[in-house]
Every structure is written in C-alpha cells, then in structure tokens.
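Exercise: predict the fold of this chain.
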Amino acid sequence: MDINLARTFLAVTESGSFIAAAEALHLTQSAVSARIRTLETELGKPLFVRNKAGARLTPTGERFRRHAESLVQLWERARQEAALPAGRAEGVTLGGELSLWHPLLADWLIWMRYECPEIAVRAEVDAASRLVERVEEGTLDIAVVYNPPQRSGLVCELLMEEKLVQVTSSPDGSIDPDTYIFVDWGSAFQANHQAAFPELAAPATSISLGPLALTYLLSVGGSGYFRIGTAQPFLDDGRLRLVHGVPEFSYSAHAVYAAGRADKTLARVRDGLKFVATGREKPGLATVIGSRRVAK
C-alpha cells in the first residue's frame, strides 16, 4: 500500500474534514478524495461517513486507524535507519513514560552519549499502554514503563524497584482531606488507593503527573503519594514528612522489548538503563558517566 494513502487517511481522521486535510497536506480536495477512494477500494469497505459537518470514521475506519498509525511509524523508522547520521553505525528508538524521563531516562541519554557515541538515538514520550503496543508492533525498540502488562512475545525486565509513599507538608505528619492531592499513578494504584482510603475517593485536587503534583504540594501544602526517590530530598531537608501508619505501594520500572531480540545494540541500551537505574540516587551521576568515558 502507498504510504501516502495512510498519511492522507490520518490527516482526514485528525481534522474531521477533507478540506482541512487537503490544506494540511498541500493538496487539492479532489486529490484527497481520490486517495481515500483508492484506499477504500483496496480495503473493500468505506472508511468515512461524509456529510455537511465533515467526515467521521465508520467502524471499519476506526479499526483501520491503529494500523494506519503503525504503518506510518514503521515507515518513518525504516527511513531513519536507512539514512543514519554520519558517524552512526546503528540506531535505536526508546520510549518512556513522562514521569520516568527525569532523572532516569535523562541520565540514560547522557550515558548513551558518552558510552555509545556510534548509536543514533530517538527518544519519545507516550502513555505506557501505547508504548507497549508499539514494541509489539515493532515501531519501538524498547519501552521503559511502570508496572507493564504481561504480553506474550515481550520481555519485561526489572530496572528498579521503587515505592510510592504518602508524604505531607503538615508539621505533625497528619493528613487533611481538604488539602489531599490524588496523584494518578495508574490503574493498579487507583484500585489499591480506593481500597485503603475510601474516604478520599473524591479529592478536591487530582493531578495525573507526579512532578507537577509535587511542585504544587511544595508550593501550597498538603499530602499525597509520591515516589520515595523523588520525595527523599524534601524529607531530608524537613520540607516534607512521611505519613506513618498508611500503606506503601510498589511502583517498579521495567524495560520492555521483544522476546528473542539479542542484537548488540539493544544489549548496550539495556546496559545503560541498568547502570543509571542502579546509580540514579547518586549525586553527580552525569559527572560519573563522563569520568568513566574519559578514563577509557
């Protein structure tokens, strides 16, 4: 299938309009319509319902959307690998959850720069479920996520074991339901939190990103669950306190990649992830990595 057909399909899907898609792709509306007709002929089913309001996906179009996205991503990856930058012998694409990029994956990027300068790196951020799907599809080499689902054909390798602990800015270590911050650490955490704290089922403040929630807590006060590694500096300087007598929850990070993949490039990537995961709480990790490279 012509990759431009998939690109055009996605443009119409995203804009909800053949006219808007034509403008975005710098094509005429008739050219966009012709591409969609060609695609529908190849698939043997209509992909859009057209009306005055624009275009919406049919059930077949909804099912095809994921495959079209994968086709375009796979093509982009193939194009990039076929034209690696000068001085790079291999390439790797790694995706991670947003909350894992600082400091773990930022340190990994530094490690790759010093230890594997011959490898071109593409780094991406996405939701855990989508990252795992892309590893399955082959459009991502490796994903770093918290508590990944177990999937046939994928390896989930433990990188670091971490705990979610409840902390508070209150001097006496107490919890005030009015200032409690619910941080969304995923479906497993949500279920455990609901079982442990039914009285906090409808908090006044809910935030889906841990670093943002921590910044908010330190600014206005309150309590909530955070990764112990992130909270520890503020526990040490007295700005936060542990809430005693409440449960702690496991929140381990894993590297997810295709089973049976044993090439040297992926092995080096995993070496780097293990190194930074082991030393992530050490001060000056970037300096340590640089020193290792200079000493070689």
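Check your answer against the key: The chain has three domains: 3-80, 85-160+253-295, 163-250.
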